[in-house]
Amino acid sequence: MTRMNCLLKTAIILTLPVFASRSIPQEPIRLIPYPAELVQSGRASLERGVSIDVRQKDSEDGFTASDLQSSLAEVGVNLCRGIGCFRIVFLRTTTDEATRDLARAGLTFSKEMQQEGYALVSDSQTMYVIASSAVGLFYGAQTVKQLVDVDKGVPSIALVNVRDWPAMRYRAIDDDLSRGPIPTVDYQKKQIRKFAAYKLNIYSPYFENALEHPSTPITAAAGGAMSSEDVEAIVAYAKLYHIEVIPEQEAFGHLHGVLQYDQFSDLAETSHGSVLAPGKPESLKVIHDWFGDIAKEFPSSYVHIGADETFELGRGQSSATVQQNGIGKVYIGFLNAIHAELQPYGKRLLFWGDIARNQPALLHDLPKDMIAVPWWYDPQPKGFDSFITPFRDAGMETWVAPGVNNWDRVYPNNDMALRNIQGFVRDGQRLGATGMFNTVWNDDGEGLFESDWYGVLFGAAAGWQKGESDIPRFESSYGYVFHQDQTGKINEAQQELMAAHRLIQSLQIDAYPDDASDSLFWVDPWSPEGQSLSKRLMPILHKVRIHAENAITLVREAKRAAPLRETDALDAIELGAYRLDTIGLKFEEASEISQIYQDAYAHESESPRRVAGQRPRVELDLMDISDIQGRCQDLRNAYSESRQLYQSLWLRENRPYALQNVLARYDIAIQLWTARGDKFQDVLHRWEATNHLPTQEEIGLPK
Q1: pTM exceeds 0.90 for this model
Q2: Which one of 25, 291, 326, 423 has the fewest CB atoms closer than 10 angstroms to its CB?
Q3: How far apart are CA 298 and CA 5, in angstroms?
Q4: pLDDT digit string (tens) for 63-80?
């Protein structure tokens, strides 16, 4: 007998008298997303366990009950029968019992709740989860999970009456699978469980060359592409959790991974470039073949064709056509051609709206069944109307695409991310957008998804909740809801990292991401670029390091206080904070090395012999630069320790593919500071032998 069938057979509980729940202190309700309507009446103890009663014998409802039971068991709440058990009852709105319970609570099940909405009705002994659909019951169960609290080993549940439904029909997460990290199937399943738990209903993996296409087998990155078997497993698993998998296969730009092959050289706008040449019939053929493969593997009625950032268009094979007709007509014309080519597959096409937005007069030429996805990833104090209205005015359905601000950064800039998501989704709802398409990008190939949950969960909340989502409410709820942190320290750690980002942003460094970028982490502080950056950064680095070190301290204190959930994400916070701290350490100690060496050089004529057991000043200076605990060793160790944690986190979620590309950068940094340490050791030995030091220029030190 399967666990699901066993649950359905054993969890049908007779109505029996139960003992009244003992008094439990009433705490503020912390939920992500927060329901549309909620009234709390108290708390009930779950010490004796729960009974889970599925009144309608439906396989989807049975899975929901099984999923809830597993989640409760993880926090020490077990199934029980009889006296003292708290009951959780799943009801469809078509039953008389549901009608009575809603009426008793003074609740109505309104039209907007029919598709995905739910109601919770509670008394001291029972919580009724009521919905008209399987997905509504599933979302009700996700809220029930968050209502359970464990305080000093004692589980309890908040007693609430709730009416809840989504503000937006489509709530998606777009995950970049083509810039380095490629998740394992097991990790994708974990992602799906978490997406569903926070009421996202679309998972959109992004492909350039990370999906195996039987029609063009060479295009799949070796060891870094999803196979047909992977797709089948993910689609089936996602269906259990009411997640639709909508693939995004780039079909215009961002195709360098394909066009680097000479087999496709005739299709490239520019030699070995990134953009398909629109005027080539073979371009449409390869698109036809790719999406034919996709149609066989992905049952969704939607598919995303990308078509963003086609910057090479008009610079190569299509230059004459662009000069004659204009770049807008060529671009829109190719989207129309793709639409016509893919019509036999019966899919609705999503496309990125950045290029088309600049051609508002031509948008009316696009088929009205295409879905525009305008994107922008920074906050906009004046709002996002200009990103949305061109498509709305052209009569097109629109999904708005904010982002988690993780790309090219040692840790996501969550301050930027939350304000971007809040504003874009708010304005999207006001202007009639039907979907939210939150994005995760790994432009430099270093991104770890475990770092991204903060922005992902806020996006889930913003897409579900009506109007402008409350950032302070989310910030105060995140640590408790996602990690079960009762101390508030995880929330504080996130605030510390945001403060560090803001300090670096305040410098407005040209040609760098405007916050704690990976580039700052990797740059050699003695290079001309590094020296220029050092002058800008030095006044704030102490404060940046204090924020980063506070974040590490807070995470570790929270871990010691009680067992927490989602520990990989906590390790990712520590890694991000440690890398931020290393940026400060590197520039600070690189500057100190230069100053210390100047002091040593000024005293090079002193005798290398020890007097009364005291080391000569030059020796002490050079040991400060390079010895067991010298500055060079500090920097070597910082990169070595980051490398170890980074590799561990990568392999917990991703395939080995592309890992070495990142580890190579760590190795170069480790070798650089190891070699510099050795050089200063040689300088010390030379001074002891010759009483002479090389100049700063001779040793490679900047002045």
Answers
A1: yes
A2: 25
A3: 29
A4: 999 999 999 999 999 999
